[in-house]
């Protein structure tokens, strides 16, 4: 019967004799709108324009440690739509999540926060943004899904290229 229980041997993580859990764990504790702003500076004239606005979307990911094993991640999305040289609408959304970590090596937290964190938050931020634009009198703005893992890998490649390039010039 004892062979039926693995006790983490296959993962290399075994419980301590005192019952303490030593396996790494990461999870989303809470998510929330930290800041939301919708501007419609040219209403009502903007609704008489039949041209579709040109939309510019900018993303930024930031975060900070807010507790011993808790980090806040903020996904900031800025949208500016213009039509015929006039602003149709501007939306600024800061959507945040609290992530808890237990037994996770420090060097693995940032990669998680820059890949998995935004991947978990983005669908909810996308909905908030679409609703705000729709409630402002425009068709909902549905953002395409983003591969945050690929973006992280690109940024790591760019940083390693700059580091090796700098070292090569010395």
TrEMBL record:
It comes from the Bacteria. Its main location: cytoplasm. Keywords: Chaperone, Cytoplasm, Protein transport, Translocation, Transport. The keyword Transport applies. InterPro entries: SecB, SecB-like_sf. One of its GO terms (molecular function) is unfolded protein binding. Homotetramer, a dimer of dimers. One homotetramer interacts with 1 SecA dimer. This is Protein-export protein SecB. It comes from Sphingomonas gellani.
